[in-house]
Sequence to fold (690 residues):
Amino acid sequence: MYEPTLDALRRGDTAQALASAEQLVGEQPNDASAHRLHAAALRLDGQRDAAVAALDRAIGLAPEDAQLHLERAGALLDGRQLDAAQASLAQAIGLDPNTFPAYIIKAQLALLHGDLDEAERLARTAARIAPDHPRVAAVVGMLALRRGDPDRALAVLSQAGSVAPDDPQVLHALGFAYLAKDHLAFAEQCFQRLSELNPEQPTLQMLLAELLRRQSRFIDAADRLAPLAERDGADFGVRRWAGELELDAGRNERALRFLRSAFAEQPADLRTLDASMEAWRRNDAFDEAVQSLETALAAHPQLPQLWRARVALEPFASESALAVIERWREAMPENLGALEARAAVHDHLGETDQAVALAERIAELSPGDAQAEMRIVQSLIERDPDAAAERLERLIEMAPDPGVKRELRQMLGRTLDVAGQPEAAAATWAELHAEVIEQRLPLNPISPRTGEDWPPLAQAPEGSRGILLLWGAPGSQIERIGQVLGLAGAPLLFDRFGPQPPTDPMQRYGTVDELLNGSLDPAFLVKLYRAALTARGVADAPVYDWLLWWDNALLRALRPYLPEAFLLLSIRDPRDMLLDWLAFGSPTPYRLSSPEEGARWLARSLEQVADLHEGNLFPHRLVKLDEVGEHPAAIAQVLADTLRINIQLPKEIDVSDRLPNGRWRDYAGTLGEAFAVLGPVARRLGYPER
Fold:
């Protein structure tokens, strides 16, 4: 008499199972098994509460049946009634201490509650009943995952999966183990199989969509989620996510269809707003965007994100944009975003006083507001640098973040310079350098000046490609030459300053000592240098190599074995170089423990440059950037003349962010000792005594 119901349940035929089970309980109202089958049909139909009621009737007829209590716990778990499920499980175990599934479910509940020790205890008890059961492995694997050991979890669960490849609990745990190891394709396979076993589970479809998205399979992800989003009464979050996935997939019209309804439902949600703005943009739906935002603003005039989006639809600083901003300010007179939007338009129109007035109002409403404060400080630097310095000092005291404090102190040093307070400016910059010594590179060793006989300069091989070696000491503003070369399209190699520098000897500090003591063969150095060029992405094209450091000891290798190279060195007045290094740092992030130590190292380094230049020890060109550095076109012309190439700059370069040439004289009092160290080499390089 049970077979028709059992057959329908096995086939997943919900309607037939319900009809057959209802007929059965009508005919056998006092049969506990009939009510159990009726509960199973109701669970299949999603009627969780009715299923629990049917099981309660069955338990009333057979209160000693532990399996009925276990099934009741399962129905309660379907409805996330965890405490009631715990009680039913306890009843099942009390009736039959060997009820294995009850221990497994209780262990899973303990995992849900985060009680890992209790879950482990229950798993051990279940293992005594059925030591090799794959569901024990499922609990053990999830425990390992929760305790941060995905490798053990994967090992345990893979073994269980080979024994029970279609067990839902094992598949679920194994999928998350793969996910923890970022094995997305394997995780997808597990959850796909789970989905086939339980096709009506929407959370599985969402999980699969996320896995597909993480594998950049955006169309597949969107197709997986779309049926859920298209259902009547689909959740807002599902529709929003479907729209985002359609955008990722490049199906812009479908995206707008989902996002249109999501935005209409929750226009205040920033994520929905951002996605909707992108969908309107891609579909050229300007009129719809305006209308949708206006409708939302009529209902929610106090939402600044809607006003911000509405302003963005108008050309910047246009009359129409100003009209929207004024409406925004009428609706929200003290809103910071509205004030900042109006200040930005004032800035654009050159109305500095009005912009600063609004910035001061913003600072009153929101003390420490970074954008407003910077606008005020910049204005004060031009009008009253002493007042700007005082304001910066107050901001430094207010700033909670150490990184922000450091940026403000850097700005304070520059402001003190403009204010004519060189002693305070130099002290500020020196403190900033001293604080990060441990995070900077040590100064590279410099070989002694020996007046040695250099190996003969070889002839460049016929048809050899040119190799430009570019270097400048700290403060030389060598980066301006690099900027000009980069903008002109030269294949400049600056990987020596990046996270994956080349490993050739010209990168390592120890190369100097190795050349001097004979442990590094000069020919082998050049061989390694040439070999590294291929790994750096250079084929047969000319080489433009920006060096991390320079030492004349390298000439032992370059003169006889790399004669086709050309050395381009940038210099400025050494005292300006030291000041620039102190104020702005250097491309090579050297540590600068004190101006005096920096001066001693810089003097020795520049003496080598002077030796090279005076003795013409290698083909080279000194570029005095204090003569041409303020004029990018002049730098380009020097490079074009030197390298015999045509250099065209695509746009103007802003080089106005550094101290003017000769500013070192204003610091002669506070940095006099350091400048005295640099005086002799300054004279050798052609700079005046004072």
In short: The chain has a mean pLDDT of 83. The two ends are 113 Å apart (CA to CA). Residues 3-217 form a domain with the Serine Threonine Protein Phosphatase 5, Tetratricopeptide repeat fold (CATH 1.25.40.10).
